[in-house]
């Protein structure tokens, strides 16, 4: 059986008409039957849909936001398609479905489920447009709804993959198509057994590519980005960056855990388990080597810098003069597990526990409500979590400068600090 290749294109690679034309050129000489193309929502579409959901939650008018988003996609289509192309009624139909889905009631209780039912339209619309354009350019491929392939539980926004069911779905529905044509599908979105739409976590399209690759026993996965490969720091934040020609699975997984945005955190494990190499390449320079993530014996010693924005520092202080024990940790982590809140940093003292986590709407409110009878709870929001792997004193001093630290943690290999960013 021929080996499958998986290509994933993120939002930046299909953000406008020229980007979609560029994607078609990248695929022109690389496409073969056993290829899966995974696409994200176009540009900042997911952000735009989140604003619409937020306005709906706050009972504010959002129809103009839908119109702006529709016109954004329509302008792209009018540039790259002939006037009477079928993509235009398809686009109209998708935005009609979006408007209908937004008519359903929204509350704190059903927020996550509602979120997934709306946010999926970004990927659905993008995949239709890209699929039709490739076919227009005689790069024939089949469109596939990812929700029929990747089955999950109903942990909306952070759905857990049912690997056994997903593998059966992929082998039954996807594999026969790949024998005839390349297949284009969506990243990020998935489906529960009930038929409800779920998602795999923000920026989860990389994980989609890894799931498909693992279930198909693919030869490789290639993620196309607006950077030349995996860098030791975000080039938008730091001037001097180093590109890795190759990186070990474990090193890459650790960087994603700390918040490196180049790859979704869950992407590495399914690939590493089957020794499937992951290539990170630039859609701006597609012939460049990029970075190969695979089994590398030589450990990395280059300092790596990761900054996570919109962090919350929460402190739980015992009120009955007892000292912090394992029971307190177990109690707090039990509530975090129920709310699907992930801790990015933990620090304990004699009488308090401090946690750093992503800002998630309504989740902190529910957490404090559950634990306020036992602890005095305080929190700071709008923070940054800085992580320096393979740190040294000079580098730490250079990056931090005079910024005040709310929390600091140092191990042999890793420096972490919680910072209150200065007002811009």
Explain the overall architecture.
- With 424 residues, the protein is an alpha/beta fold.
- It has two domains: 5-225, Acetylglutamate kinase-like (Carbamate kinase), CATH 3.40.1160; 304-419, VC0802-like, CATH 3.30.2130.10.
- The protein contains 13 helices and 17 strands.
- Strand 10 (278-282) and strand 11 form a beta hairpin.
- Helix 4 (87-101) runs antiparallel to helix 6 and helix 7 packs across helix 8 (205-216).
- Belongs to the aspartokinase family.
- Its EC number is 2.7.2.4.
Q: Any key phrases for this structure?
A:
alpha/beta, six-stranded antiparallel β-sheet, 424 residues, VC0802-like, 13 helices, 2 domains, eight-stranded mixed β-sheet, globular, 37% helix, Carbamate kinase, single chain
Could you give the topology of this structure?
Blueprint: E1 5-9, H1 17-28, E2 35-39, H2 45-57, H3 63-80, H4 87-101, H5 111-119, H6 121-136, E3 142-143, E4 151-152, H7 163-178, E5 183-186, E6 189-192, E7 197-199, H8 205-216, E8 220-225, E9 246-248, H9 249-258, H10 268-273, E10 278-282, E11 291-294, E12 304-318, H11 326-339, E13 343-348, E14 352-358, H12 363-371, E15 375-389, H13 393-400, E16 405-410, E17 414-419
Parallel strand pairs: 1-2, 1-8, 2-5, 3-5, 4-6, 8-10, 9-11
Antiparallel strand pairs: 6-7, 10-11, 12-14, 12-15, 13-14, 15-17, 16-17
Family: Belongs to the aspartokinase family.
EC number: 2.7.2.4
GO cellular component, one term: cytosol
């Amino acid at each position: 059986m021929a080996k499958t290749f998986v290509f994933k294109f993120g939002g930046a690679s299909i953000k406008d008409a020229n980007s979609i034309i560029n994607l078609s050129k990248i695929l022109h000489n690389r496409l073969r039957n056993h290829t899966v193309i995974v696409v994200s929502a176009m540009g900042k579409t997911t952000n735009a849909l989140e604003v619409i959901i937020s306005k709906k939650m706050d009972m504010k008018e959002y129809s103009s936001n839908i119109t702006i988003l529709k016109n954004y996609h329509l302008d792209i289509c009018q540039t790259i398609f002939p006037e009477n192309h079928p993509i235009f009624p398809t686009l109209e139909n998708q935005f009609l479905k979006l408007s209908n889905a937004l008519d359903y009631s929204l509350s704190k209780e059903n927020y996550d489920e509602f979120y997934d039912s709306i946010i999926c339209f970004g990927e659905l619309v993008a995949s239709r447009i890209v699929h039709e354009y490739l076919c227009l350019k005689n790069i024939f491929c089949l469109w596939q709804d990812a929700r029929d392939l990747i089955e999950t539980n109903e942990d909306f926004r952070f759905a857990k993959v049912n690997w056994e069911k997903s593998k059966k779905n992929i082998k039954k529905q996807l594999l026969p198509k790949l024998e005839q044509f390349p297949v284009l599908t969506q990243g990020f979105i998935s489906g529960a057994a009930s038929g409800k739409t779920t998602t795999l976590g923000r920026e989860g399209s990389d994980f989609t590519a890894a799931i498909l690759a693992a279930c198909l026993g693919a030869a490789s996965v290639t993620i196309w980005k607006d950077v030349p490969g995996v860098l030791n720091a975000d080039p938008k934040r730091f001037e001097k960056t180093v590109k890795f020609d190759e990186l070990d699975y474990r090193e890459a997984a650790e960087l994603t855990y700390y918040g490196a945005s180049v790859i979704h955190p869950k992407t590495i494990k399914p690939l590493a388990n089957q020794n499937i190499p992951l290539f990170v390449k630039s859609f701006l320079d597609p012939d460049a080597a990029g970075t190969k993530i695979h089994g590398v014996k030589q450990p990395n010693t280059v300092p790596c810098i990761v900054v996570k924005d919109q962090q919350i520092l929460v402190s739980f202080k015992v009120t009955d003069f007892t000292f912090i024990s394992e029971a307190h940790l177990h109690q707090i982590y039990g509530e975090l597990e129920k709310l699907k809140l992930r801790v990015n940093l933990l620090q304990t003292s004699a009488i308090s526990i401090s946690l750093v986590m992503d800002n998630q709407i309504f989740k902190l409110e529910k957490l404090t409500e559950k634990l306020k009878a036992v602890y005095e709870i305080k929190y700071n929001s709008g923070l940054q979590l800085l992580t320096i792997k393979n740190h040294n004193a000079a580098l730490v001093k250079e990056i931090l400068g005079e910024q005040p630290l709310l929390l600091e943690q140092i191990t042999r290999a890793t420096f972490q600090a919680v910072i209150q960013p200065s007002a811009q």
